[in-house]
Write a sequence for this structure.
């Protein structure tokens, strides 16, 4: 098992890590190859089209087609290929192709506020505003 496909789930069973293969905005579809421990380019979308969300897989899962479960990670900004994102699953879907099923997962970031770094504005009352900073730790 390679390093990326063997990433452990959260021991508390609350969240897991998604590995991004294809980032949002890319025209290329990348796929991680455990044998080479690298990404391969599978195909390119036609001009004018791009991937609307980050797309990847959930490590330590296995579908009927022999690949890990697919994941669509919806974030405000695209990540980079091979990035890991701590997520919590909120739904799923199945895709049937050539007689085998592929499981797809719909997650949300585990702690959405960890991804929204920097000053934010919150209302304490209708007449006063205060600025606060949100931590970006991965703990």
């Amino acid at each position: 098992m390679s390093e990326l496909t063997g990433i452990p789930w959260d021991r508390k069973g609350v969240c897991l890590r998604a590995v991004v293969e294809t980032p949002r905005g890319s025209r290329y579809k990348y796929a991680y190859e455990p044998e080479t421990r690298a990404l391969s380019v599978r195909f390119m979308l036609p001009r004018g089209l791009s991937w609307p969300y980050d797309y990847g897989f959930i490590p330590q899962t296995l579908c009927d087609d022999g690949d890990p479960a697919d994941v669509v990670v919806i974030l405000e900004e695209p990540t980079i290929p091979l990035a890991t994102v701590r997520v919590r699953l909120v739904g799923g879907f199945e895709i049937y192709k050539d007689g085998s099923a592929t499981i797809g997962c719909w997650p949300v970031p585990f702690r959405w506020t960890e991804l929204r770094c920097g000053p934010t504005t919150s209302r304490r009352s209708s007449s006063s505003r205060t600025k606060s900073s949100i931590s970006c730790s991965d703990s």
Q: What stands out?
A: The chain has one helix and nine strands. Confidence is low (pLDDT under 50) at residues 116-139. The first strand starts at residue 16 and ends at 22.
